[in-house]
Amino acid sequence: MSHEYQRWNNCGPATLGMALSYYGYQFDQYYLAPILKPDPEDKNVSPEEMASFARSLGLGAVVRVNGTITGMKRLLSNGFPVVVEQWFIPHPNDEMGHYRVLRGYDDSRKAFIANDSYNGPKVWVPYGELDALWRVFNRKYLVIYRPEDEALLKSVLGEDWDERLMYARALERARKEVERSPDDAFAWFNMGNSYLGLEEPEEAVAAFEKAISIGLPWRMLWYQFGPFEAYLATGHYEEVLRLSESVLRKAPNLEELHFYRGMAYRALGREDEAEAEFRLALKYNPSFKPALKARNSKRGVSSTATKRR
Questions:
Q1: Is 238 within 8 Å of 254 (Cβ atoms)?
Q2: Based on CB atoms within 10 Å of each CB, which residue in 41, 146, 181, 216 is the most buried?
Q3: Which of 292, 299, 264, 298 is nearest to 278 (CA)?
Q4: Rounded to whole angstroms, how far apart are CA atoms 193 and 205?
Q5: Distances (CA, A) of 67 to 94, 172, 233
Q6: Is pLDDT of 96 > 50?
Q7: pLDDT band at 92 (very low <50, low <70, confident <90, very high)
């Protein structure tokens, strides 16, 4: 597997390039970034967007949540590198989202070996450290695979191949974490995301609002958009506008948030403002499919910016 150090805001493209190199593709961040994030200032490339690009090459790709240390070791021992989405804290109050490619492990050291676009090749990541940073994203991970290996991957993932079973298990895990630590904002947020995956948006709203009331890192909603999806699904359109406005003050070029705002304005019957938001989303990412679809449709608010896989 190759390694590449990221340049400005290029963690996602650099990490995807490393993961794809395992399958013989040689794409560096300078090729991938204009495709995945046409705006150089875009802070977020989602696992779903990386999976979509991998599929465009004829590869398979699945995004899952509620990963475990044992599950990652099982994937690696069967020949599947894993991209994990986790938190990164280079300095106090400077937390941000980050990706690593797990490519091996050593039980004697109780650590994974990762290619890290910020810290270098062959970075040792202790199991406990990985989970502590990973849980911020509901322990989300991406597996890219050759189509002929799909049956093997299904076997390795077991029940987690089924999304509903996966989200049910993730919800139960988050509930247990909340029982142990009622003021754990990340556990409440993961509960919200898991309720969304189970198509229970009212419960998701309650969990997200609890997480927000406890307090989340200031960049949290640059990468995770569950509260906006839940508010849209439950008709809380003014809350979509209020919460997104506070995030956009510091990161005005998040195309996902402009999309959600457009859908909220549309539901409120304010079509001119909706159209303006969709135009902004497409200004920052001209290939952003939800906004493209929304501009050609006035059929309600059922679309979401990230399809859950």
A1: no
A2: 216
A3: 292
A4: 9
A5: 25, 13, 26
A6: yes
A7: confident
Band of residue 43 on the pLDDT scale cut at 50, 70, 90:
confident
Contact (CB, 8 A) for 111 and 124: yes
Structure tokens at 216: 């989340």
**Residue 193 or 92, more confident:** 193
pLDDT tens digit sequence for 122-139: 999 999 999 999 999 999
The amino acid sitting at 288 is F
- The pTM (predicted TM-score) of the whole model is 0.93
Residue 210 neighbours by CB distance under 10 Å: 18
Longest CA span, the chain: 61
Q: What are phi and psi of 228, to 5 degrees?
A: -70, -40
End-to-end Cα, the chain, rounded Å: 25
What is the dihedral sign for C-alpha 220, 221, 225, 228? positive
In contact, 34 and 17? CB cutoff 8 Å: no
Contact 141, 64 (CB under 8 A): yes
> Among candidates 95, 86, 75, which has minimal Cα distance to 47?
86
Residue 195 pLDDT greater than 90, yes or no: yes
Q: SS3 sequence, the chain?
A: CCCCCCCCCCHHHHHHHHHHHCCCCCCCHHHHHHHHCCCCCCCCCCHHHHHHHHHHCCCEEEEECCCCHHHHHHHHHCCCCEEEEEEECCCCCCCEEEEEEEEEEECCCCEEEEEECCCEEEEEEEHHHHHHHHHHHCCCEEEEECHHHHHHHHHHHHHHHCHHHHHHHHHHHHHHHHHHCCCCHHHHHHHHHHHHHCCCHHHHHHHHHHHHHHCCCCCHHHHCCHHHHHHHHCCCHHHHHHHHHHHHCCCCCCHHHHHHHHHHHHHCCCHHHHHHHHHHHHHHCCCCHHHHHHHCCCCCCCCCCCCCC
